[in-house]
Automatic annotation (TrEMBL):
A molecular-function term among this protein's GO annotations: cellulase activity
Biological process annotations from GO: cellulose catabolic process
Name of this chain's protein: Endoglucanase
Keywords in alphabetical order: Carbohydrate metabolism, Cellulose degradation, Glycosidase, Hydrolase, Polysaccharide degradation
Source organism of this protein record: Tetracentron sinense (Spur-leaf)
Amino acid sequence: MLPAAELFHLAQVCGWERGSTVSGNASAAGRLRLTVAMELQVDLTGGYYDAGDNVKFNFPMAYSTTMLSWGALEYAKSMGTELENARTAIRWATDYLLKCATATPGKLYVGVGDPNADHKCWERPEDMDTVRTVYSVSSSNPGSDVAGETAAALAAASMVFRKVDPKYSKLLLKTAKQVMQFAMQYRGAYSDSLGSAVCPFYCSYSGYKDELLWGASWLLRATNDATYANFLKSLGANDAADIFSWDNKFAGARVLLSRRALLDNDKSFEPFKLQAEDFMCRILPNSPSSSTQYTPGGLMFKLSQSNLQYVTSITFLITTYAKYMAATKHTFNCGNILITSSTLRTLAKKQVDYILGDNPLKISYMVGYGSYFPKRIHHRGSSLPSLASHPQALGCDGGFQPFFYSSNANPNTLIGAVVGGPDQSDGYSDDRTDYSHSEPATYINAPLVGPLAYLAQSYNK
């Protein structure tokens, strides 16, 4: 198992982020009105680029942070010496998210860098000269989704640091409560407020109710405050789910809340447990209510663009629910099929094994793992020469020729990064220009850490 720090690591941002602050508001006709404030200096250093570009999108970044934190909470004993690396990776993100939540009263910063300008460029982070526009949501331009996810990340991380750094943990939890209050009080999707600054890249396609459910679920676990339990039950989130990702959190919240029904024997959370099991029945391949496709090689297939993001996130839920089931000797049925913890564990192992090379192409989709892995990934830092080998600056379009369109392998191996993965027929072309399949992302990697730790422990006994 590769170190958690390597698994999670993608490009980090250093230096001051300087740019115009932009907020938005959608009219009744759906037209976006952007208000550009005077240029200012705001310290939003740190955080992660979500994938192969040079933009900080807080929505997927916060989700990656929540999932890595959840993994550290559930599988701390299984992670061994890698737990400290996981904490380091989490803290790099939460330090940034704290700044975003506290830098300016009444605002939550949710992104840095103009994505439309950035995506016209192919340049190293060290040479980056694109505008560093800073985006925010507020009471007049709400973003319950990104705020709910940010609150979830801070709350989950607060528990990771509770024993090792109590002061930092308290700061995280205090800020999480404030951000969650903002999410609950000022309802609205950040896509409507920010438009083309986040769409089509990370639109909130599922709306914001799932993030309210998700954020409140994490605040409940972190505080045990009945206020959040009452809020959860008032949401009435009965939407059926057969997916889990940075955008749609319904299934994740239900698995998290089912912990209280199973491990704490709290009957009031029984409905969430039943919803979690309905989700599992929609994922399991032999279930009569399954709505999940599988490739001929056995990989679950949800959507064509970066399918492994759904595989790793769903696999996390499968292993975690299996863990809860094993601890309580719980079983359930999908129709007339009995589901045990080993049923779920077997499916999870199949998915992880596929990612690591047990597939028709015998390719590991984790860069640097095994003898055959993607060599031409869609990632600026990996595909462009280092400063040591090419000290001359590469401008905005300086990296396209001869690097981006080259058939050569990337000069820098991004060890541990997991790419978008194969198509629905198990095919993979290893083509840098095919970002749907060749681009790595933090929200693919972060959820995989938990299942790797779970399986490492389960099969090393």
